[in-house]
Amino acid sequence: MMISCKKQLAALTFVLICINALLPAQEPVHVTRSDNKVILEGKVYYVHLVKAGQTLYSIARAYNVSEKEILIENPGAIAAELTIGQVLKIPSDPASAFSVDTGEGADRKKNHILKPGETLYSLSRRYDCTVEDLLKLNPGIDINDIPVGQKILLPPDETVRNELSFDEEGYLFHKVKKGETLYSIARYYGVSLREIRSVNLELGWGGPKSGDVLRIPQPSTTSAEIFSPAIVPVDSVSEKKDMVIIEDSYTYDEMKEEEYFPERMYRVAYLIPFDYHEMEPLDSLLKDVNSPIRRERIRENYRIASATPQSVNFLEFLEGSLMAIDELTNEGFRVDLKVYDTKNSMSRTRKILEEPAFSEVDLIIGPFFRYNLELVTEFSKNNRIPMVTPFYSSEEMAMENPYLFQPTPSYKTEYRNNAAFIGRLYNNNLILVHQGDSSWMEQISFYKEALFEEIEKYSAVETVLFKEVVIIDGNTEGLVHSLNPDISNLIILPSVDEAFASMVSGKLFYELQNYDIEVFGSSYWSGFNNIELSYIHALNLKISHTHWEDHHDPGFLEFLNNFRKNYIREPESYYRLGYNYGVTGYNLSIFFLSALHQYGNRFLFHLDDHHEDSMVYGYDFIRVSPAGGYENRALNYYYFNKDLNVERIQLPERPPLHHYLQPAGDDPIYFWWSDPDPDSTDHTNTLNPE
Question: Cα(112)–Cα(124) distance, rounded to whole angstroms?
Answer without folding.
Answer: 11
